[in-house]
Structures are given as structure tokens and as C-alpha cells.
Amino acid sequence: MQTSPLDEQFLNVKQAAKHLGMKDERFVRRLVAERRITYSKFGTHVRIKASVLDEYMRASEVPAVPVRRRMRRAA
Q1: How many CA atoms lie within 13 A of 49 on its CB side?
Q2: Which of 14, 4, 71, 3 is nearest to 48 (CA)?
Q3: Distance (Å, rounded) from C-alpha 34 to C-alpha 24?
Q4: Phi and psi dihedrals of 70, rounded to 5?
Q5: Following CA atoms 15, 19, 24, 30 in sequence, which dihedral angle do they give, to the nearest 10 degrees?
Q6: Helices (DSSP H) in 1-75: which residue ranges?
Q7: Which residue among 5, 38, 49, 51 is least crowded, i.e. fewest CB within 10 A of its CB?
Q8: Half-sphere exposure of 54 (CA within 13 A, CB side)
Q9: How far is CA 71 from CA 37, 64, 66, 74, 75, in A?
Q10: Distances (CA, A) of 38 to 14, 48, 53
Q11: In 3D, which of 69, 25, 70 has the Cα closest to residue 48?
Q12: What are phi and psi of 8, to 5 degrees?
């Protein structure tokens, strides 16, 4: 049985901040205001899909740089 995109959970701003591991809602509100994430608006209520937040976190990952070891000079 496949799930529909409409079956996905919508989070309010407070829940979205918690999902991202943030204490404060300001970061999520700024993402919405700058339209850096997709959101839905039901009247005055802003709702964000959990998958949108997961995709934002994936896109924000910075890959690690391999450590290059220095050769020691012979004394």
C-alpha cells in the first residue's frame, strides 16, 4: 500500500524547529520569510512538511575534507 503525499505530516513552526534540533523558532521563521524552504499556508497558519526539512538538512550538509598528513623532514 503506497502512501499519498497528502498523508505526510505537516509541522507547525515550533515543531519544525524541534525537528531541526533548534530551541528557537526564529530560524525556521527566517527560512519561511526568505522562502528558502517550501511551506503551506492554511489561513494564517504556516505548516511545513517533515520531508521538506529533511531535504533542507541534506542539502545543507558540508562534506568532510580528508586530512593530509605532512611529511616530516629528516633531521
Answers
A1: 13
A2: 14
A3: 17
A4: -85, 145
A5: -90
A6: 13-19, 26-33, 50-59
A7: 5
A8: 7
A9: 45, 22, 16, 9, 12
A10: 16, 7, 9
A11: 25
A12: -70, 150
Give the closest residue to 13 by CA, choosing from 43, 48, 61, 42: 48
Q: What is the rounded distance in angstroms from the CA atom of residue 74 to the CA atom of residue 39?
A: 60
pTM, two decimal places:
0.74
**pLDDT tens digits, residue range 17-70?**
999 999 999 999 999 999 999 999 999 999 999 999 999 999 999 999 988 877
Backbone CA torsion sign across 26, 56, 5, 32? positive
